[in-house]
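Thread: quick sanity check before group meeting

JM: Hey all, I'm pulling together slides for Thursday and realized we never actually wrote out the predicted structure for the chain we discussed last week. Dropping the sequence here so it's in one place. If anyone has concerns about the input, flag it before I start.
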Amino acid sequence: MDFQAALNFLLSDDELVLTTHVNADGDGLGALLGLSHWLTRQNKKHRIVVADEMPDRKYRFLPGYNRIESVYNSGLAIPVPRLVVVDTTNRASDSACDQDAGD
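JM (edit): ok, ran it. Output follows.
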């Protein structure tokens, strides 16, 4: 994907949902929160949703940790208009939006 296409995707009018792999670790959460910080500075509406009950509390020192939602209690309507998956392999099935929020 070229840079301009990625920028256009991120700055579109649709709300973004940011997520990472199951069992989110420091890399995944750091990437989510870093992107969230940038999006906030751009006045871009977005949510941070993970496929865990909640990320490990040892990461609560990270700025923005309190904005992270669990897919299980987020009320997230799937499919989402714009999804950004960070720090993952090509297996998007390990992301929050592939989880059944009804379980």
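AS: nice. The helical segments are 3-10, 26-41. The radius of gyration is 13 Å.
JM: adding both to the slides.
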